[in-house]
Specification:
two-stranded antiparallel sheet, single chain, 6 strands, alpha+beta
C-alpha cells in the first residue's frame, strides 16, 4: 500500500481537535479569517494528502519518473496556515499607497547594498549588459527590490508552500484558478529538481541512479510565501524557462550564485521584450493630469501611441523625438496610475506614461508599484531614463549602460518620516 494512502486512512480515523481560528496579521487584512490547520480539520488534511498523492502519481506516469523518488522527496510535505493568511486578498477598506511602497524599497539601505553588489559583480554585469542589452542598473534594481541581494529569500520550504496553495488555497473569488496555478508550479518544481539531481526527462534506464539527496535538497530549499526562489525570486516555471547558468559551472543556482541570478534576470527581461536603449516611463505633464486620469483604466496594455499622448498634452513633443531622448511617435504606451492617500486621508494619484519597457518589468511582477519602483531604483543607481540612439547620420554606437562600468556614487538620501 502506498505510504501516503495508509497515512490518509490513519488521519480519517483520528478525531479533529478544534482551536481558536487564527487571524491575519497582514496590514492589508483586518477582518478575521478562519484558517484550517493540519490539526484543526482531519478531513481537510486527508484531502490534502490524497490530492498530493494523486499529483505525484500523475507526474510519475506522464514524465516517466520513478514514483518512489518523488515520494521520498515529498513525503513530509505539509500545509502551512500562515501561508494561507499571507495570500488572502486585501480587505475592502485597504487603500493602496504608492508613497509608502516606494519608501519601503527605494531607501538608503537597499541603495547602499545595490552599489556594493554592483562593485562586487562589476565585470559580469557589464558583460551581461553588452550581451543582452538589459542595463546593469535594471538588473541590480530588480535583485535589490526582490531580496536585498539574497538577504531576504524566504523562510518556508518551497514544497510546503506550493503544496499548501495547490491543495488548500483560502476561499477567494479566484480560488480555483489560483489552485491550478500552484498545482502547475508544484509539477514544475518536481521536474526542476529531478533535472537538478541528474535525472532525465523522460526517465531512461539510467535515471534510477538519480541523486536522491540532491533531489530532496532541491525540494526542501527555502522560498517566499508564494514559492519564489533565490536572489531574483523566480517561480519554478520561470527557472525552467528563463534561468541560465551564468557562472558556467553546469548548474543553475539562483540561491548562491550571483552570476546565475544576474544572467537569469537579464535573460528574462530580454525574452519578455526589453527594448535596448529605450526609456521605461515618462512623467505626465502637471496640467494634463485630468486627461491622464481619463485614460487610466488599470489594464496592463499598450493602448495609445506616443503621438496621441502628445496631442492630448500628456507628453511633450520632445518625448516623441528620438533625437531628444524620446521614442518613436508611433510607439505604444499606457497610462499608469499610482494611488496614495494624502496626509488628510484624501485619495490622490500619481500618473506616469508607461512604455514598452515598463510593461516588460510588469511581466516580472504584475504590479505597477513594483515596476515603477524598479525604474526609480535603477535611476538612483545612474540609469538614464531616456532613449540612446545614434546621432542622425552617424554610426555612433549606443552609449547607455555599456559605457558605464561602475555604479553612480551618490550620497544616500535621508529617509523621510
Amino acid at each position: 500500500m502506498n505510504i501516503r494512502v495508509s497515512y490518509l486512512l490513519l488521519i480519517l480515523l483520528l478525531g479533529a481537535c478544534t482551536s481558536t481560528p487564527l487571524t491575519s496579521n497582514n496590514q492589508a487584512n483586518t477582518a478575521q479569517q478562519p484558517i484550517v490547520n493540519q490539526a484543526d480539520d482531519a478531513a481537510t488534511e486527508a484531502r490534502f494528502i490524497q490530492n498530493l498523492n494523486d499529483l505525484m502519481t500523475q507526474v510519475a506516469q506522464t514524465q516517466q519518473i520513478p514514483l518512489a523518488s518523488i515520494e521520498a522527496g515529498l513525503l513530509d510535505a505539509k500545509t502551512i496556515p500562515s501561508i494561507r493568511k499571507l495570500v488572502l486578498p486585501p480587505s475592502a477598506t485597504f487603500k493602496k499607497n504608492w508613497v509608502v511602497y516606494r519608501q519601503r524599497f527605494i531607501e538608503p539601505v537597499r541603495l547602499k547594498a545595490g552599489r556594493a553588489f554592483w562593485e562586487q559583480n562589476q565585470a559580469f554585469l557589464s558583460q551581461t549588459e553588452q550581451a543582452t542589452g538589459v542595463p546593469a542598473e535594471l538588473i541590480v534594481a530588480i535583485i535589490g527590490i526582490e531580496t536585498i541581494y539574497g538577504r531576504q529569500t524566504g523562510t518556508f520550504r518551497v514544497k510546503d508552500v506550493l503544496s499548501t496553495l495547490a491543495f488548500s488555497y483560502p476561499d477567494a473569488p479566484n480560488k480555483a484558478a489560483r489552485e491550478q496555478l500552484f498545482k502547475d508550479q508544484l509539477k514544475e518544481l518536481i521536474l526542476m529538481c529531478w533535472s537538478d539531481a541528474g535525472g532525465k526527462l523522460p526517465a531512461n534506464n539510467h535515471s534510477q541512479g538519480v541523486n536522491q539527496v540532491r533531489l530532496n535538497a532541491c525540494l526542501n530549499q527555502n522560498s517566499s510565501y508564494a514559492g519564489a526562489i533565490g536572489l531574483p525570486q523566480f517561480m519554478p516555471s520561470s527557472i525552467r524557462s528563463f534561468a541560465v547558468d551564468g557562472d558556467g559551472d553546469g548548474r543553475i543556482d539562483l540561491r548562491l550564485s550571483a552570476k546565475d541570478a544576474i544572467a537569469s534576470v537579464a535573460n528574462f527581461m530580454k525574452m519578455h521584450g526589453w527594448q535596448t536603449g529605450m526609456p521605461i516611463y515618462f512623467p505626465v505633464q502637471e496640467k494634463a493630469i485630468p486627461a491622464a486620469k481619463a485614460l487610466a483604466d488599470g489594464e496592463p496594455q499598450l493602448k495609445y501611441t506616443v503621438q496621441e499622448l502628445i496631442e492630448k498634452g500628456i507628453l511633450t513633443a520632445q518625448q516623441g523625438d528620438l533625437q531628444n531622448g524620446g521614442v518613436e511617435p508611433q510607439s505604444k504606451a499606457m497610462i499608469v496610475d499610482l494611488p496614495y492617500p494624502d496626509k488628510d486621508g484624501n485619495d490622490q494619484v500619481h500618473y506616469v506614461v508607461g512604455l514598452n519597457n515598463f510593461l516588460t518589468i510588469v511581466q516580472y511582477n504584475r504590479s505597477y508599484f513594483y515596476a515603477q519602483s524598479v525604474a526609480e531604483f535603477a535611476q538612483e543607481l545612474g540609469y538614464k531614463n531616456q532613449s540612446v540612439v545614434p546621432i542622425l547620420g552617424s554610426s555612433k554606437s549606443l552609449e547607455h549602460g555599456s559605457a558605464k562600468s561602475k555604479p553612480k556614487k551618490t550620497k544616500a538620501k535621508k529617509k523621510t518620516k
